[in-house]
Amino acid sequence: MPDDIRPTVPATRAQGTTIPVGHSGKTVHTGNGKMSEPPLNRKSTRDAKAFTLIVLPDTQGYADIRHKETQRHWPDIGDQRSCFYTQTQWIKTNKKKMNIVMAAHVGDITQTEHDEEWKIADAAFKTIDNHVPYILCSGNHDMGYSPQHHKTSYSRQSRFSTYFKPTRFTKNSLYDSHFGSQKKLHFREEGRIENYYLFLKAGGMNFLILTLEFKPRDETLAWANKVVEKFPDYRTIILTHGYLTKNKGQRTGADTYPVKGNSGKSIWEKFISRHKNIFLVLSGHAMENLLTSKGKNGNTVHQVQADYWYWDTAEIKAGSGFLRIMTFRPDKNVIDVQTYSPVLGRFLTRPKSKFSLNYVMQEDEKQSLR
Hints:
By secondary structure, the chain is of the alpha/beta class. It has one domain (22-358): Purple Acid Phosphatase, chain A, domain 2 (4-Layer Sandwich), CATH 3.60.21.10. It has helices spanning 69-73, 81-93, 95-98, 115-126, 160-163, 167-170, 218-230, 264-270; strands spanning 11-12, 18-19, 27-30, 33-36, 51-56, 100-105, 134-135, 196-202, 205-212, 235-240, 278-283, 289-294, 300-305, 323-329, 334-341, 346-348, 355-358. Strands 3, 4, 5, 6, 7, 14, 15, 16 and 17 form a nine-stranded mixed β-sheet that branches. Strands 8-9-10-11-13-12 form a six-stranded mixed β-sheet, covered by helices on one side. Strand 9, helix 7 (218-230) and strand 10 (235-240) form a beta-alpha-beta unit. The model is unreliable at 1-45 and 365-370 (pLDDT under 50).
């Protein structure tokens, strides 16, 4: 990591309890997981081209203030919206020292898709609206809430595009370099934000980041195929919420969600595996998972999942502010992945939370994507 990433402001839980941030660098063993305090990081001249992508996993618990499903699991947890606010404030504060070029939310922004919950998400992202570009992904909890069943995903109706209109990005000068000349073409449906893409230039490379709705429909995948085909020289990252299961290296298949669309297995076959420039898939929905596969063109595709609403380690309960730090190091042809909570001031250091992905970024120009 190019710089010290400790928060510069104290983090607090929604209940108002201040959580001290330690600086000793000691490793703390906690339950089934392993957590450590942030070390002092020395800047390296070899990291001159390094840049960081921040991944925000499911924030549903932080916005869960109406039906309070989170509180049913953890009665003493209280209102957690401050976790969401702390995450985006930390991103803003550390933009320069970590060279954060974009933040990506992998879905389940809300718990039950109510206005009160979207207002929390709206307030959180307003912190970075004019400071750090971000791209959002719709999850199963972000659409089709049924009052009768007290469940989501009964339809694709959503308030998502009410609070995050395409114009929030197209009319923001921060995003001028992330759109082409015809901004409307970046969105599959006019006025809707469930499926869209942004450009990103970092480390001397051109990237395309494309986000897909939960269980993308065939027509959505047809659109996505055309987009990626149109930009074959752009290194491409795909965001979609439900793609891997909680079982190691397994893509999703048939499920019981009322809304119809493609599973992870179908997304791979119909879309991702077909394009040589897709190298990374980011998803949420079902704990941590990792799968590396070869596409039909022989290209390596890393599929990385993170969701901390679950409770495989007691200290993570309902998220606790954990997010993913993905540091691209072109000089080393590697992407370092770390899991950190700006709320707790702690890293998760277990193997599924801290690892590196091999990815060629520096090679003979005739053979590389530029």
